[in-house]
Inverse folding.
């Protein structure tokens, strides 16, 4: 299923990257007064694609009014799950490597009966770490390319409460977990912002999983990335430093059955957005060291490239 709004150029490109054997559901939110022409172009792109591919199972849902990010997501999921028991969900600005759909298909089949998993992440932020390919349990349900099941969606909380620290720590997934202050404060702030009017669906989706003592399945290497950081972006207009460009996404060989799944406490966790893992209590030493080391190495790399560029320029004049 594709979530679309006003970025018709992104949708045009994305539709031509979807494998031809897929059923495609395109949900387009209605326009705001300042986006009527852009949304109209998005609708045209979707309808033209449907006409050009009459032999493919393509369905389109055009909202008449603008629902916003959170309600449009809920409406889209309700609609698509009327036809399917499993969904792979892409926003119009998400791009993926050649193994993305194979990994999602494998995960949806393999873990369907394991209620511990609420969501399959396509995005990983751990490409920079050394080590072999593995899978992880993760608190973070990343929404930049993901998959889930109809029975998990039926547990989705439509109205997410404003949680204080006590309410956040009382969620079943965090029982007996010594949580880092950073992790706790970050998410409590997100719950408060949601109640104050921030229009986003990911907070409520994460809350629904945690309330049901569930988490995400997280790949070691990323299958997806995001290209939508222009002025039309609703929330994020600066590309996160860890995010790969589409051309740098790599394949791993599709040997998913051989991957080990690491559970708490076999790896470090949520010291920052870089490493949002399943064990936020492990904040001493490991996570802080890796985060600081990563920032240092990244800055060193940029500095050395700058020096090399200046050196090259000075010797080519």
């Amino acid at each position: 299923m594709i979530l679309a709004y006003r970025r018709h150029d992104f949708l045009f490109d994305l539709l031509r990257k979807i494998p031809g054997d897929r059923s495609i559901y395109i949900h387009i939110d209605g326009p705001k007064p300042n986006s009527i022409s852009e949304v109209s172009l998005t609708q045209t792109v979707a309808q033209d694609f449907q006409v050009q591919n009459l032999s493919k199972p393509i369905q389109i849902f055009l909202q008449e009014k603008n629902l916003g990010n959170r309600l449009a997501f809920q409406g889209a999921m309700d609609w698509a799950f009327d036809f399917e028991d499993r969904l792979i969900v892409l926003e119009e600005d998400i791009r993926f490597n050649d193994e993305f759909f194979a990994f999602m298909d494998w995960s949806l089949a393999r873990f369907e009966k394991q209620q511990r998993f609420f969501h399959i992440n396509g995005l990983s932020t751990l490409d920079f770490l050394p080590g072999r390919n593995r899978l992880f349990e993760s608190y973070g349900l990343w929404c930049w390319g993901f998959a889930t099941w109809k029975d998990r969606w039926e547990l989705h909380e439509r109205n997410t409460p404003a949680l204080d620290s006590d309410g956040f720590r009382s969620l079943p997934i965090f029982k007996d977990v010594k949580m880092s202050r950073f992790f706790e404060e970050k998410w409590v702030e997100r719950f408060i912002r949601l109640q104050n009017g921030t229009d986003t669906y990911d907070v409520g989706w994460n809350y629904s999983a945690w309330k049901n003592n569930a988490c995400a399945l997280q790949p070691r290497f990323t299958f997806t990335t995001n290209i939508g950081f222009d002025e039309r972006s609703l929330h994020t207009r600066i590309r996160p430093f860890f995010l790969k460009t589409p051309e740098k996404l790599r394949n791993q060989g599709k040997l998913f059955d051989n991957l080990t799944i690491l559970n708490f406490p076999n790896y470090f966790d949520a010291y920052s957005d870089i490493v949002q893992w399943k064990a936020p209590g492990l904040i001493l030493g490991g996570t802080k060291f890796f985060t600081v080391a990563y920032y240092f190495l990244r800055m060193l790399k940029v500095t050395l490239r700058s020096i090399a560029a200046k050196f090259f320029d000075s010797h080519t004049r």
